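@channel sequence for tomorrow's demo:
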Amino acid sequence: MNRFITHTTGVFVSLPVMSAVWLTAFFPMSMPYLSSSGIALAGGAAAYGTAAAVVHARFLKKSGLTRSEYRYIQKNVKEAKQKMNRLSRALFSIRSVSLLKQTVDLLRVVRRICKLAEKEPQRFYKAESFFYNHLDSAVEITERYAFLSLQPKKNSEIQSSLKEANRTLKELTFTMEEDLFQMLSDDISSLKFENTAAKHAIDQKKDLK
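structure tokens (generated this afternoon):
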């Protein structure tokens, strides 16, 4: 959920409430300045919290999620971001140009999936394999590849392992792209439907001429 929207709504609601409470306490009720200010702050905080709670509740209703589901998804997205940071750090250790480009592409897909799940948490369930398996594998393989590739001497076993890791990361990149497409599947279906409906309307109009 966009925290900026929640915060902005809370501020817009709380400021008028604070002003009204302070004016009421200071003038009609003749309360001291500090007491009026304290009551106004408390009223503003209550208004802010209420407004934020209402916005959050509407967001959950629109997303079709319970509070516990939302917290669970947020926890997984937060962990995914931490893994994404590990993936970014591993990039600086990779000297292979081809693998570096491949890992950058992988990181771009990971970032897009995390942003989608954060903005629209209901999409999380369409890419559970990404959060539970694929991302973990990508991070572990990339970090291990970076470590082994930095060794001053490499025997045939290390070279073979690096080549195998390269192939596996290519497959994981493709798999994560499929995860992303799965998250977008409803949008793709909606677009196809709209295209079909629009073409049908155009054809009908042509037939009438």
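heads up for whoever presents: Residues 33-63 form the longest helix (31 residues).
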